[in-house]
Description:
The chain is about 75% helix and about 0% strand.
Amino acid sequence: MGNREALLAGARTCLLDKGFDRTTVRDIATTAGVSMAAIGYHFGSRENLLFQALFSILDEWGDVAGRALVPADEPGTNPAEAYERMWDDLLAQARAHPKMWLVSIDLFLRAQRQPDLLPQLTEGMRQGRSGTAAILESVPETEVPEQSVRTLGMVQLALMSGVIMQVLSDPDNPVTGADVVAGLRALAKITG
């Protein structure tokens, strides 16, 4: 592993352990086993390195969430059961990797104060909506209708964000896939 890769790995570790604001150049360099000057050489600044590490973590989180979203292919499983099981898997991943989720919240907050991050965040959200809709509709991402991206993908991402924030904020009150499905059924009655 070269210095650039070591620095990126070190920054990821520091972000997950300390968060953005508490991670110093010295922390990253020590964790990576390289000189502090290497950060400037390879990334220009601590912030640029940390942003690249943040997006790397988000890509990983997207992969983890995407695997949890893939419906169960067990014979006799109806779509509602598969969706409930998907939520159970997703919630288990969130509980197992809470720091990955918290880093995504940190990035969202930073992008609101640093407009130069918004284009990357916007594109990441667009890809997330599209990929989520494709998984839920069981079609290749290139074949997802834009309407599904704007509706199904958006609502599923909103549900994931909100439910996972509640799960991480109140670990003593575990949420299940059955809870999510029951809540959606109740909402469907209201919206008719």
